[in-house]
Amino acid sequence: MMAQYLEIKAQYRDAILFYRMGDFYEMFFDDAVAASEALDIALTKRGKHLGEDIAMCGVPVHAAEGYLLALIRKGFRVAIAEQMEDPAEAKKRGSKSVVRRDVVRLVTPGTLTEDSLLEARRHNYLCAFAEVRDEAALAWTDISTGELRVMPCPPARLPPELARLAPREVLVAEDHGADLALIVTEIGAAITPMARASFDSTGAEKRLCALFQVTTLDAFGAFDRAELAALGALVDYLDLTQRGKLPLLRAPQREALGGAMQIDAATRRNLEITAALSGGRAGSLLDAVDRSVTAGGARLLERRLSSPSRDLVQITARHDAVAHLLDATRLRDDLRAALRRVPDMDRALSRLALDRGGPRDLAAIRNGLENAALIATLMSGVEPGLLTTAATGLRGHDELISLLDQSLVAEPPLLVRDGGFIAPGYDGDLDETRRLRDEGRGVVAAMQADYIAQSGIQSLKIKHNNVLGYFIETTSTHAEKMQASPLNETFIHRQTTANQVRFTTLPLSEIETRILNAGNHALELEKRHFAVLRQAVLDQAGPIGVASQGLAELDVAGSFADLALAEDWIRPRVDDSHAFHIEGGRHPVVERALRRQGGTPFVANDCALTETGTPAIWLLTGPNMAGKSTFLRQNALIALIAQAGGYVPARAAHIGLVSQLFSRVGASDDLARGRSTFMVEMVETAAILNQADARALVILDEIGRGTATYDGLSIAWATLEHLHDVNRCRALFATHYHEMTALSAKLSGVENATVTVKEWDGEVIFLHEVKKGAADRSYGVQVARLAGLPSSVIDRAKVVLEALEAGERSGGSKAKALIDDLPLFRAAPAPVAKPAASKASAVELRLREVHPDALSPIEALNLIYELKQALD
């Protein structure tokens, strides 16, 4: 056995080998050590190899999926070696023959299909990046849904595209450079090197033709050599990992490089589009706007938010669909009610194609198509547009629905081996076999009653296990009675255990044979029916996929309509201009969080970047905590949602098409690459200044704050000038350098705006209102007090601030004022004499006696008169 294990393991050196041993997957040697640590399971030993103990651990087959998920999440790959024959067959070759085993599947992060290993509402992408001479391309697939896409992708565009897709695994040529490996690992994906032969474009074309059973790929579009190489590498890898059982992939779709709004990785992270900075979905834009009711719709919504469209016709069509469902209340409610009953047909279809499906996957296809037909009827009266186009593929499945409806029970079991999923009346032979099997159980019960009467032993039971079959069991106290004459002539002893004695009889052996044959025969008949039904579904895979896509499209439109109605969002006007006018804009995530925290209203704000031409820049000043970052982000998110096809959180919105969205907000370092916070800030700013075109929307927050004051001011100043003179784009630029407000008088496209605050009795009150103009101070000391800095530090800061400001007013330098005019800091300031407590007035004494909650309106009014007379 160990020789067989080592032979298989030699073919999968970079994977943990799950070696099937009966009801367990066992691991040996270094695999066992690594798996026991990763899974926190016991490490034991089994025999010796080359004089040393063999490390071993194992996991139950029935619970293997949970352990697989844990290993995959920790970066392992797992090769699953199954028993390819029955142990009884192996024994026919000799008593010491080893059961034949082989790897049936290589499990990797990008090739998961089981529901328990996947997130239902997110894609699980596998990508391949190929370079052929001067061309480069990126291909990706989700084998759990069958999606297959490709696009030209120069190396410079790879980081933002991978950030958009967020794949779990990326295939690259084995001679890839360190830069490529860094790009992949930065997005949290596993990198898998493959032989150059896998990326050969000529071989790739042959593999693709064989996969789709065509002689040429012309019907799918024109692909360059790099695109063919990337697609071919995907197919080659899937053939390797799935051991020849290729998933059901849809025809490859080619995406244009400029078809979607360009959003780089830093911007996605800063804007928290699909994941919050803290990690996970909660707190992200996607979490705030997702009201989809199907898994397919949720995945499509995430794709839309990750890659907003730049096609005005497409954007308008999506807005029209939302508008129709928003107006048609009854249709919207009925549609969403029907969609809630739609299962995940894409993933059910994928499992069936890979022969990992079960009866519930057939039922998912049946239920999904039945609801699709109902939804098609609902949409029959809708005017032509995106909704009717999506509904087109929902019809035409009557024959398959009828077949599945007649053949399957309403709630089938998960596994084929469980049986009982073929409906009564569908197959007469199966019904007859089942009757024999079920009546046999009644016969066994009658025999048990007869044997109890015959023996006089009330505790006698007829039981069954896989070793003995049917047997009669009594407690050991009755053993002598059963073995004494005349009972011993009927009951034949079979086994004695610690507490029981087991017997059989000739009639029991005969009925066992009949029952077992009937049960096995019934299961075999059901397996045959499953194979036929599975093939019938796979024969209609294309139309089922179209129906599933249509349902997802309807779900996204319904989701946006429901969101717009509930949150009072409006339809944006998106056109080919350079306008950016938002009235009463709100941040969807912050507004939702405020509502959950007690209903605090969100302060809406306008943003009106000039539309007479580019550039159009707002220079935003104001104190920390006043809401500058929120204002910046909300306008970026409004543009993103609008071009994703949704309504937006505002009273009105007019947005000229945004080609690129850039965000430099927040501060973080990158210690792994030796980058300080300031260096990260400068790298991200450089990327914006080098890439932003005239249609870009840029939001920048506190550029230059990570270095010396004059250095930072100089960098921020030059950055704003570059945006205005070179990039000539729309931008929101927040800063604490008030000196920069002078630029509005020098640069025609720059306007000053500020977030207002109010001072009251030495405290600062944040109004969160944005208006035209410039702030005269930053209120940093007041914010520091709110943060809880010691009062001695706050008092000292006020003294320093006053001295610095006085030095500037008198024409001196800040440094000179600080050094020459200020005494040294004292950690323990001189105590300040407290003023003597004044005697409480009559009004104060009276007010202390009042309990406001107990006053009626007339009593409160009388109290006011009383207090006023006391003052007079």
From TrEMBL:
Residues 696-712 form the DNA mismatch repair proteins mutS family domain. One of its GO terms (molecular function) is ATP binding. The keyword Nucleotide-binding applies. InterPro entries: DNA_mismatch_repair_MutS, DNA_mismatch_repair_MutS-lik_N, DNA_mismatch_repair_MutS/MSH, DNA_mismatch_repair_MutS_C, DNA_mismatch_repair_MutS_clamp, DNA_mismatch_repair_MutS_core, DNA_mismatch_repair_MutS_N, DNA_mismatch_repair_MutS_sf. It comes from Gemmobacter fulvus. This is DNA mismatch repair protein MutS. The keyword Acetylation does not apply. ATP binds at G622, P623, N624, M625, A626, G627, K628, S629. Belongs to the DNA mismatch repair MutS family. This protein is involved in the repair of mismatches in DNA. It is possible that it carries out the mismatch recognition step. This protein has a weak ATPase activity. Keywords: ATP-binding, DNA damage, DNA repair, DNA-binding, Nucleotide-binding. GO terms for biological process: mismatch repair. GO terms for cellular component: cytosol.
